[in-house]
Amino acid sequence: MSETPALILGLLCGTGGVIGYLKTGSVPSIVAGVGVGALYTYSSFRIRNNQPYGIELAILASVILAGSSIPRAIKTKKPLPSALSLLAATGLLYYCNVKLNQRQ
Fold first, then answer.
1. pTM surpassing 0.70?
2. What DSSP line would sit under 53-84, residue for residue?
């Protein structure tokens, strides 16, 4: 069940990157969106198949997304970076909690 949030986040990031590129022609949008989306989606696949490092990959994708979106959200106060920051924080909190519960 813990693969579902990673799959949703992956699809949202990938789709957002493509939409950002189509609307503005921004190559960084498509590279970052599809890259982070692929990382989330790959982590979902690994989690679903009980392969090692699936949770860690989801945490990594969340850290990358947070690292790029939170400073922009603070600086610009625009809705899109704020929404990305919220997604990143949600993924980070969820998967860190899953990882901590695995250890107990």
1. yes
2. THHHHHHHHHHHHHHHHHHHHHHH--HHHHHH
